[in-house]
Amino acid sequence: MLETWVVIFIPFAYLGLLFAIAYYADRRADAGRSLIASPYIYSLSLAVYATAWTFYGSVGRAAENGVGFLPIYIGPTLMIALWWVVMRKILRISKQNRITSLADFIASRYGKSALLGGVVTVIAVIGILPYISLQLKAVSYSFNTMLQYPELIIPAGNGPLLGDTAFWVALFLAAFTILFGTRHLDTAEHHEGMVAAIAFESLVKLVAFVAVGAWVTWGLYNGFGDIFARAAADPELEPMLAPFGGVGGDYSSWIWLTILSMFAIMFLPRQFQVTVIENKDEAHLRKAIWLFPLYMLAINVFVLPIAFGGLLHFPRGSADADAFVLTLPMSQKQELLALVVFIGGLSAATGMVIVETIALSTMVCNDLVMPVLLRMRTLRLNERSDLTRLLLGIRRGAIVLILLLGYLYFKVAGEAYALVSTGLISFAAVAQFAPAALGGIFWKDATRRGALAGLTAGFAVWSYTLLLPAFARSDWLPIGFLEHGPFGIELLKPLALFGISGLDQITHAMIWSMLANVGAYVGVSLLRAPGADEHRQASLFVDVYKRPGEAGGAQFWRGTASAADLFNLLARFIGLRAAGDAFTDYARERGLEQPEERREADADLVHFVEKQLAGVIGAASAHIMLASVVKEEALTLDEVRAVLDDASQLVVYSHRLEQKSQQLERATQELRAANERLTEVDRMKDEFVSTVSHELRTPLTSIRSFTEILHDNPHLPAAERERFLGIVIKEAERLTRLISQVLDVSRLESGRVEWHESLIDMREVIEDTAASTSQLFRERNVLLERSVPARVPKVKADLDRIVQVVVNLLSNAVKFIEPGRGRVEISLAEEGGFLRLDVRDNGPGISLEHQELIFEKFRQAGDPLTGKPQGSGLGLYISRRIVEHSGGRLWVSSRPGEGACFSFTLPLVNEATLGKAA
Amino acid sequence: MQEFDVRGQRLAALCLLGLVLFSYPVLAVFNAHATIRGIPVLYAYFFVAWGALIALIALVIERPD
Prior knowledge:
Strand content of chain A: 5-15%
Radius of gyration of chain B: 15 Å
CATH class of the largest domain in chain A: Mainly Alpha
Number of strands of chain B: 2
Number of domains of chain A: 5
Strand content of chain B: 5-15%
Number of helices of chain A: 33
Order of helices and strands of chain B: HHEEH
CATH architecture of the largest domain in chain A: Up-down Bundle
Distance between the termini of chain B: 13 Å
Strand order of the largest sheet of chain B: 1-2
Low-confidence stretches of chain B: none
Oligomer: heterodimer
CATH superfamily of the largest domain in chain A: Sodium/glucose cotransporter
Helix content of chain B: 55-70%
Shape of chain B: elongated
Number of domains of chain B: 1
CATH topology of the largest domain in chain A: Sodium/glucose cotransporter
Number of helices of chain B: 3
Strand order of the largest sheet of chain A: 4-6-7-9-8
Distance between the termini of chain A: 116 Å
Mean pLDDT of chain A: 81
Largest sheet of chain A: 5 strands, mixed
Largest interface: A-B, 41 and 37 residues
Number of strands of chain A: 9
Structural class of chain A: mainly alpha
Shape of chain A: elongated
């Protein structure tokens, strides 16, 4: 089934399918029902990281030195753990500033510098060329291998056929990418169709690789154990089972590869594109942080079995290990599997090429070509009415150019290296972005000059130690340049700079380039303070979490512009209709009249237009364009600082204001509570006064009526007069008692009572009160029983007050009891640190609902027989206050018909204080 | 929003753990000519440690706030 026409037709059919997926996703996006708004699609799209390098090259690398392919995937796993902090911040910054590419990101950070954006673009394009050539090589390689079937001829060298194939592959991919990525302009550089297709390709390559891996492991051999056992038995392969220190190189090169990959996963232009620019929702990051590493783990499980399987299967040296994935199934006539592998490899390579060239073409257009064109006054670009076609044209040209350059690199230097070694050169190039980009989001004082110096120094060292040697190895430069250094200066040998040898090429280049890069970046940044533009942008980036919403930035602008000019400017770049929509949205969001009808534009509108423009042509170009219609008064550094200080002051103020208002709220609540208490007290006072007056009137009325009788009837019989006078005296006594109790209550409540505390013996208290109430008991013929232990500890209290309490309890008991049959028992006992006194009677008892009421002012249970109150209703209230003041408790337990028991406790004085008191 | 929240700190710690797991001297411990269930210990170690690290990252990131 692997006839020539099939092999030629399949790639077209597959790419056609991709295009259909992309078309469908774009349609869905236009309809507002995005296909890619899912963390799973997002994670799969990140897997564009796995290219032909992973698909073919990993096996080649593994066949060389065992585990040497792994740091390329372990590094990203480690880096991704930091994404929660780092990438979340980059995402937030990019969304707020409408960043369109990595170059745009770095240029924006350092004061929207067009120069810096250009430098980043040049480094990215040159740095990525080896990587693109690798994909071209892999695709043409696998294609030619397939065409030779059923023969297994591995085309070697730069044969005319292979070269031509790579050329046609490059052109074909360029056409495909143009169709894919530059059909129209998007103000946010979103390519939903592309992302959907990439996610699909990620699935295809994973399935294909796992399929061939499983087949090699269990079809060709008998599982992992079998393959490794055979490898261990082979003297040539055995050292690869524990490769460190031998075939696998040393640990330092391992670490450098890990660090290199950590940077690559963030700063490869295509990774930045899918991770940052195409991100639909910050929350998708959460799933991607563990799903993407899982993907890498899955696609690497079978690398070692395939590598060893291939080495064991083919006679040593007869087959290129980079192609094992494809040649193993072909050698066993597994045609379908070979076809699946071919498509998987195609997926891996095309995915990379499409996203990488789209990302690079955006950079070339926005950060390299447009800034230059816009500055060339003779072109009069400022006056052209529609620039969208120009922009698309530049991008399409850039795509073709980049792929042709990739092809050129492949022709010049591609054959000298294996796939992985070629790719690593690109990794080392993009690692140069790390200091400027990472430093830029955390270090405010980094400057444009510092970033420029760092990037150029790092790139220069990279070119010297990696790019030039690659050309020299391919005979495009004299090889003596490598062996003896330029002009015979040994110290400057590109592979052993300053005499440092013994490192592998990548480690050597990384150490020197990072040293130069970071050194220049930090050193030059510290030489001079940042200017106004840089300071403003630094604050927008570093403090992104402190500035809410997209509004940040407008506050830095001051100048004059007409709304109509701004509208025309935007329309030239994104078209009349899109510009109209943007302005309408702007007005609606802010609840304004149509802004184009206003004559003067405010800072907010200018900022809005600049951001819209930045979404199409990048921050640096947008800045230049805007300057052409806006008369901007440049802010001085001091003014920017002042704005920033104002902003941070504002934050402080608003924080304080919030605190104040919280305090105020608390105070209001307290006031309200106090007011409620006051109202309640006022009500109680009124009640108290009216109750007291009532209570006073009863005895007064009685006294008055009897004295009137005595006054009006001077001749009453002596016995009658005696009786009336007795009543008057009794009522007067009651009045006196009542008044003294009222006075007591008011003193207790206001805290004006003087307490004369002393150590008192409760037995004496009981004796005294029994004596003083004995008359009462006798009168009502009630028996008083005492049950007092021989010795009780003393308690500390006011003697007179406690006596008052006991008298009150005893007289209460007598009062309510049935004369003649009554019995009152008073007892004393020690109980858990307290002395407890009980007064128990066999009276009518108190119903449950009255048991708490009787302790309130002027409440009494009353005589159940007559319903007439028999006291002032203040005694128990006063008693409870006295006991509680002494640290004890007063309560009643009773059941109707079974008598009542009033009890109170007083705290015992502990020995120590007792001793002191004595 | 806090930039370096607790989750960020835990993940940074996992990154450091990974750096330790996959560098000298830990790798040297497993760089031996021995097998476990027929698989060379170094290879087994890589995939088990890698998988465990991913599981830990997933655990930290997916844990509700």
